[in-house]
Structure formats: structure tokens, C-alpha cells
Design goal:
The structure holds two protein chains of two kinds.
Chain A: H1 2-25, H2 33-61, H3 67-94, H4 129-151, H5 157-179, H6 184-187, H7 196-214, H8 233-252, H9 260-288, H10 293-307, H11 316-341, H12 349-367, H13 370-373, H14 387-417, H15 424-429, H16 431-436
Chain B: E1 2-9, H1 13-22, E2 29-45, E3 48-64, H2 66-79, E4 89-94
Antiparallel strand pairs in B: 1-3, 1-4, 2-3
The chains are: A mainly alpha, B alpha+beta.
Chain lengths: 442, 116
Amino acid sequence: MKHTVKYILIFLAIFVTPAIAFAQDNAVPVLNGGDTAWIIVATILVMMMTIPGLALFYGGLVRRKNVLSVLMQCLILTAAIIVEWVAVGYSLAFTSVEGGLNPFIGGFDKIFLQGIGINGLLDGYGIPELLFVSFQGMFAVITPALIVGAFAERIKFSGFLLFSLLWALVVYNPLAHWVWGGGWIGEMGAIDFAGGTVVHINAGISALVMAILIGKRKGWNVKGAAPITPHNVPFVMIGTALLWLGWLGFNGGSGLAADGLSASALLVTNIAAAAAALTWAMLDWIINKKPTVVGFCTGVIAGLVAITPAAGSSGVLGAFVIGIAAGLVCYFMVAYLKPKFGYDDSLDAFGVHGMGGIVGSVLIGIFATRAITGDGGAQGALYGDWHQLWIQVVATAATIAFSTVMTWILFKIVDAIVGIRASAENESIGLDISEHGEIAYE
Amino acid sequence: MKKIEAIIRKSKFDEVRIALHEADIDFLSWWGVKGQGTAKQGLIFRGIAYDVNAIERIYLSFVVREVNVQKSIDAILKSAYTGESGDGRIFVSAIEQSIRIRTGDRGDESLYDKEQ
């Protein structure tokens, strides 16, 4: 018996130890087919959010004389930002530089994706880095496209295009680096799973600055005049459905794997969207006596925005509360504060994306739970840890400050070079004819 | 010959058409218009309720012989009525001449089908 035990031990020592050692050597990541397949699908889903999702959502909300201008803005951004991203954006966001600059901006090591081969894996993950470039590229595309909602119906196409390109270059890329690319916000421990700060607060705050600087549309919020209302509500519905659907890839793919965390992110995304939409519909029903389609759709987007940063740290409870809070805050912002302050954020890019993003980004500090983030992971004030809340507030405030200042500067520069606001005559004819020479509906 | 024009509620258009048909008025044109008056229409956009006075109406227009003028007016009065503000108006005006393009018929003859 004794001998048997001894032989087994010797056997183990000889055969299993090298096997363990071998397994450790082999901890170098290998491509995971399941992860890769899901992130390819998620990339496609996120692309669908901008065209046609956001394009139709915004296109339906404007008047019929401006629908093509909004579609074209979304289309050209998709193409222009893909080029910008591959040329320099990815490198600025996701590489590191020597020395003291690294907390703030990446370097030029991977411009035009040099050095990334087809067999190269993303550091620490089982997916090709090239796929990560494409996935993140779609985030870079949709972010400036969101701002379109603020200046819709009164911007010159040339001014819009120059502003958006510069904005992607010097606002989006650095912020993506701060949060995701090894910069100071990420290093501080701030949680932004899928883009609450980088995408939504960033775009939303820039939208507010743009709406204020470019000025109101002629005839908006004039007492006694007819309100400016959506020209095609079914477009708004189709756009919302595509955004909602695409968002499952946006949040569900942000874990960069096909695993339990992704499943959880997908689930809480739907919970928050549903809770916010129901909240908005109930408010409409109670306050204005009728539940509206545009209101419901707006609620869906508010909930999706708010859960975006929190999708990888909040559980079911957090998702419900974040969704309801987003519905309440965004409704209040859009229906009461905007008319009171008198800034014309045409399609509520700030009211929904800015405010929704802030709600989600801060509430992470309350609802983050180790049930999702794992042992030793971040947790929120609800579980007795106030530290994360403070970090989230700092990350949110820093994003707001950066977006405000940079957008203000860019507006002034672009306005001086090519001009941003369309002429009064072109605005009243409509941008479809004056900027693009086309008519949407004969 | 008289031209009869009426601005009526969209919701009453089908009833008016049937009433005119029963009064033997089978030739008419109409188009959708927006107009303003005392009536209001409620609209809600992103949490804000608006009372809009630009309201959609149907504008219809047809030319009849003198014998049919009163019949036409009665038909519209009866069928377009709800009693609420916004029921609309009927206008009657004189027509100098009417010519049927296919046959060159002029006057009353151009306004009805001789074969019937």
C-alpha cells in the first residue's frame, strides 16, 4: 500500500508537473473562435447603430426639408471616421508613449495599423487586434454622429465636416486613451464599460456647447408659433429599434469575449432600456394624458445610454434603478429645463446622451457589485464602498470639462475658417436643397 | 352656373362625398389643406404639449348648374355638421363660362353627361 502511494507520487512528479509547467507556458493567449465570432457580429451591430439606426432616428425627428442633410451627415461620418481611425485615431487612442504624456495621449506607433498582423492578438484577449480596431472604430464613428442631433437643421455641411473630423482627432481620441487606452482615468480605476464617458457624456456635452454657440433654429420655441415637430415618426421607431438592437452588440461586445459577463451586459442593457422607456411613457401619460411614440423611443435611448458605462458592473437591481433614473432625469431635462434655459438642442443629443451618460456613469459608484465585477472587484456605495463613487464623479467631471473646453475652441476655429451656421435663407429653404441639391420626397 | 367650395373636417369627408353623390353631384375635386381658425389641435413632442391652430382640413370645389346649387349646399350642411367649433365654411360664387375639353360643349351642357 505504502509503495503504491509512493509510485503514484513519483508518477505524478514525473508526468504531471511538466504538464502543469507546459500549461503555464501556454498561458500565452490563443485565438478563441467563439470570442472572435461574437465580436465580429458585435462590430456589425454597432455599425448598424449609426447607419441606418441613428440616421433614421434623427432623420425622422427633423422636418422633411432637412431629412437628407441628417442622413448624409451620418453617412459621411461613417466613411470619414473609418479612414481617420485607421490612419491615426486607433494609434492615438490605444498605444502608449514613453514619458509623462502617456496618461493623456497615445503615440504614433500604429498609424495606418502598421505592425498589426492578421495573427496578432489583442493583448490579454482571445480576439485578433485587427478585430478590436474595427470594433472600436465603430464607437469612434457613432460618437461624433450623436452630436449631429444638437445642430441639426441649421449647419453648413462644410463646417459640420471639418468640425467633426477635428473633434474626432483631438477630443474623441485623447478621451478614449484616458479611459480605455491606458490613460489617467482608466488608471485611476474609473469604470466605463462601453462608453458612458468616452461616447455619451463626451458627445452630449459637446452637443450642448454646439447648440448654444450655433444658436436657435429660426422659429423654435417662439410663443404662439407652431412647434417644430418630427416629420416621420415611423422612421424614429425604426431607428430606435435598430439602435436598441445594435446596442446589444455595443454593450454585449464590450467585454471582448463571449462569456458570462457579456451575457450579463446584454441582459442589463435590455432591463435598463425597458425600464426607462416605461418610465417615459408613464410620465407622458400622466402629465400630458397620452403616451407618445416619440416619447417612448426617447426613453429607450435614455435607458440604453445610462446603462452603457454600467453594463459590466451592475446587476439586475442596478439596471432597473439606472433605467428609471435615466427616464426621469432625461424627461425633466428635455421637457422642462431645455425650454427654460432656451438653448435649442434640436434632437436632444445633450438631454438624452449627456444627461443619460452622467446618470449611468455616477450611479456605477452606487450599484457596482462584486456579483458582476468578481472577487476584489469594484463595488458601489450600496455595498458600503464610497471610494468608487468618488472616482466615478471625478471621471465624469473631467470628461465634462474636457469636452466643453475643446468643443468651444474647435467651434471658434472652424467658424473662423469655413463658417458653421447656414445662411438664414438656406436654413429656411431647408438643408436638403441648399446643401445637397436633393429632395427627399417628390 | 355656380362654383361651390367648402372647407370641411377631414373626418367628415367620406360622409360629405356620399351625401353629394346622393344629391347627384358626381364631379368634384378636393385637396388636403392646412388652415388656421379658432379650433385647436393638441400635439405632444418630448414631454411638451402644444395647442396648434394649424389644422388639417379638406378643401373641395365643384361647379354646378343653378338647379343643383341648393341641393349641393344642403347635402354639405347636413353631412359636414358636428356642432363643434371648426366645422368649416361653404362658399358660392358665379362662374362665367365652362367648357368640356373632350367635346367642346359650353355652359350647362358641359356640366352633366348627356348620354345618361
